[in-house]
Known about the structure:
The protein has helices at about 10-20, 35-40, 75-85, 90-100, 145-150, and strands spanning about 25, 50-55, 65-70, 85-90, 115-120, 130-135, 140-145, 155. β2 (about 50-55) and β3 form a beta hairpin. The chain has 5 helices and 8 strands; from the N terminus they run αβαββαβαβββαβ.
Amino acid sequence: MDQPVVDGPDRVRQILREAGISTDVTRLNSSARTAAEAASAIGCTVAQIAKSLIFKGVDSGEHVLVIACGANRVDEARIASTIGERIVKADAAYVRERTGFAIGGVAPIGHTLPPRNVLIDADLAELDPIWAAAGHPHAVFRTHFAELLRLTSGVIAQIA
């Protein structure tokens, strides 16, 4: 039987509820495509934004999700060393195909295809709350580091 088609924020909302998390998806009046835009719209620091960045494994072709502190720049060589495979930045079509989300609204959960690896920036552990995209450039959800680890089954890593 076919599953009903849901948009990104609905998919994220459903996953949060199924995980027993009471937070909800917040629709913003302005764009949250970048960490700076999201922080401005929410009223938090840039560091409190959990950026979901998608990379492509050079050999496997599979996607790698890096959840980075909004204030940090990802060191791609460090990520490659951590996962044991060279990576490249993913283009918009690849991101949409693998995650079901457009760049600027990629959520850390609810990907169409599960990522090969999920790395979570260790710097996010020091921040509370943190905010993540919820499947649309105008949608976010509030979370905490422990929740993010549980939701994504990610591995804590130094990514910067």
